[in-house]
Specification:
CATH superfamily of the largest domain: Bira Bifunctional Protein, Domain 2
CATH architecture of the largest domain: 2-Layer Sandwich
Oligomer: single chain
Number of strands: 22
Number of helices: 17
Number of domains: 3
Length: about 600
Amino acid sequence: MTTDRTYCGTPRAGDAGRPATAFGWVDRRRDHGGLIFIDLRDHTGILQVVIDPNDAPEAHGAAREARLEWVLRFEGEIRLRSPENVNPKRETGEIELRVRACSVLAVARTPPFPVNEDTEVDEQLRLRHRYLDLRRVHLQRNLRTRAKFCTELRTAMAEIGFLEIETPMMIRATPEGARDYLVPSRLFPGSFYALPQSPQLYKQLSMVAGFDRYFQLARCMRDEDLRADRQPEFTQLDIEMSFVDEDDIFAALEHAIPSAWEACDFRGGHLTVPFPRMTWREAVDSYGVDKPDTRFELLLRDLTGIVGTSGFRVFADAVAAGGIVKGICVKGGDDLSRSDIEGPLTEVARGARARGLAYLWKRAEGWQGGIAKFFSADELDAIGAATGADTGDCVLMVADRPSVVNGALGAVRNHLGRVRRLYDDARIDMLWITEFPMFERSDETGEISAAHHPFTMIHADDLDLLESDPLAVRSRAYDLVVNGREIGSGSIRITDRAIQQRVLAALGIDAEEAQRKFGFLLEAFEYGVPPHGGWAGGIDRMVMEGLGTDNIRDVIAYPKNQQAQEPMTDAPAPVDPGQLRDLGIAILPNTRMP
RNA sequence: GGCCCCGUGGUGUAGCCUGGUCUAACACGCCACCCUGUCAAGGUGGAGAUCGUCGGUUCAAAUCCGAUCGGGGUCGCCA
């Protein structure tokens, strides 16, 4: 049936005179009573079909019946349009299909929302009829681009010797990390598999097995609350390599990601390699966050030494309590009003746990702002010098614990970057953040946990600190950051048994617990483990960044809503009582049913 | 779990702040008829919403108040 198919978006003036058979959906229909024009749509574009009652009375009858989104087949001849009838807005605007025969392959109900235009539609309705949403040009383009991106990644990885290995979807639950999705076992009632949060342990075991360059476009599942850039199911480019250090892993990704990126012509297409590198310390000190948006300056500057002993009690007290004071200089910030700062900007700072946002303007008349009077002329000069403030600028400051100061000013910095348009939208800044801390302490429980994961190798210079000052220990973990968004992370792994034990001990995990949780990995490592490391990055987020969309549902064919439901099939749903009986599962009486 | 925004014919919006003139407007879509060169075709006519739900205030509620449901965003959470 499709042997001689002409795709709607493809014929050009040069095809005039050729017979053609086109298949597609009715995008628009213009019935003149005599002549009928139908814009026929497939994924390649739109073809104008002309049905003349004199040429083809039967086809004309069918075309008169046809409505939007009906599926039609047209047979006829590609004709050049007369010059006054050319439509310059359309790729196929110089030609049209003069129809001999028409068949209706399927009728269609009136669609619940317009398929032929790009209007905003209620999210729930779009998801309920996802097949129609996907039919629209926007999602067609996104998903076709995503597919191309993935194909190119596979090609690029294969080019440099990586082997794609599938890892299981039904695995042992891991106590660490995100909440697991569980799959009950029929043969072992009361026991469960978990869906993988990542193939982490399997890829490391693959290194032990001698597959020295592994990759996978791996599906991962995490039962956590959703966000605009987070779905419960997502896809990672997952890699692991043996006998390597950071440089080798970075080089592999600096080959694969730009290849795919450029093949998709994302944002002009070009990525400069190698990607710049920045330590975690430098990122937090200068940008306030561990995923800095380096497309603009507005860097954080330390003012602790200048204002820590000043007459401004808020600063002095914070410093006396072991805190710090930092500031950012907003160039041309003279136009920031007191209500701009005390309203939205302070809101952003408070949202990041700061108690407030202090401000000074440097004007021709001198330093102004409510707190200017607390500082000496020397102190004000020093603030200006440290922040680089000139006349017409505004300095914003926060005093508190270092983590609060950095977080709050980092948030204010990102906010200002966005609202003051401090960067070029076409610019792509991809960079590595290295030397992350090995451990972090929970604010709530005070417990120490692994910042990346417990198999991350310690920075060689910090081995001695493991017991004495664990929070100062740097790891060999690294993130890839794009325009202020983290898109992936990885590390060189621990393969030395003694170091592994010390790390587990620092985490409060004794030998018995380690054996229970990770025994199979530790045992495997006793049979000849190569030094190795790897990385995993979100495909969905890379495609989002490349396409310039800010919602992950725009790059996933069948996503879930914010409640992790799939409105088209109505998953999740209760199951037949017999299925539960087979699994030895009973639902507790007060459990909420959807 | 907290906070913010949204909910008006099939779709997208206006009206809501400042209650009555709303018997709810506009565009698209839908139905019928007319129309042989349109391309967001055009013309004429028509159908379609008790304004998410429940309760309250009021002589009177799409409009004000409360609760609740649904959707989105965000914080927590996501090694």
